[in-house]
Amino acid sequence: MRVVKIGGRAQANPRLATVLRDAWDAEGGQLCVVHGGGDEVSAMQRALGREPVFIGGRRVTSHADLELLRMVLSGVVNKRLVNKLAANGLPAVGLSGEDGKLIEGEAIDRATLGLAGKPVGVNARLLRSLLAAGFLPVISPVASDAASPEGGALNVNGDDAAAAIAVALGAEELLLVADVEGVKNADGVIVTSLSSDAATELIASGVAAGGMSAKIESAQAALSAGVASVRICDLKGVADPERGTVITQSQSVAI
């Protein structure tokens, strides 16, 4: 079982559908896809006169922003990706984290991040049912708010959502696919292996910032909860296990 998170920019790669089809075949249908789409959300915010704000790689989310996220991520991006995969022979089914309470979340810090949340529960039974029936789940990371009696929603970072899903499914590998080959060190060189402690140092020093720091934190959370392997890579890394940066629990030095 592999869980693959596809960043928004990586979705523009013309080889995306072919790469995921090959991965689906290689895994014998045991594959789950989570997608982002932050650039499109930001573009929509700006079109409406609202400048996006991020703290630690996570989007500050107002109630109005949440409606945009639902529209862009769960509507446009999810269905466009599902359509592309289906057209290339994949049995893709689009889901939001709100569907069947697939992802339940709780607010990280309402005072600073608003309706940005972190996953606290995953409906693994729903995903396993789809996989057992031969379908490829393609998931938008808008989550249901576990603390809201009215059934509210939260903006969960796609990397966090993918990590939680990988844990819930007992995945052997979590791939966080971006538009860069992997994590860079202070000299700007891609590192092949990075211990969790060394990764924390890269964040603390500011070398890994923004979206990359969020990816590293998601990788660390997945490893701590039992996922065997986490790799940050570009789309080529889905087929090439030697490509990208493997995040490890060990004290190995990245070179």
Overall description:
The chain is an alpha/beta fold and 255 residues long. The chain has a single domain (2-248), classed as Acetylglutamate kinase-like (Carbamate kinase, 3-Layer(aba) Sandwich), CATH 3.40.1160.10. It is 38% helix and 25% strand. It has helices at 16-26, 38-47, 63-87, 110-113, 124-132, 158-169, 196-205, 210-224; strands spanning 2-6, 31-35, 54-55, 58-59, 92-97, 103-107, 116-122, 136-145, 153-156, 173-177, 193-195, 229-233, 245-248. Strands 1, 2, 5, 6, 7, 8, 9, 10, 11, 12 and 13 form an eleven-stranded mixed sheet that branches. Strand 1, helix 1 (16-26) and strand 2 (31-35) form a beta-alpha-beta unit. Helix 7 (196-205) packs antiparallel against helix 8 (210-224). It is globular, with a radius of gyration of 17 Å. The two termini are 28 Å apart. The mean pLDDT is 93.
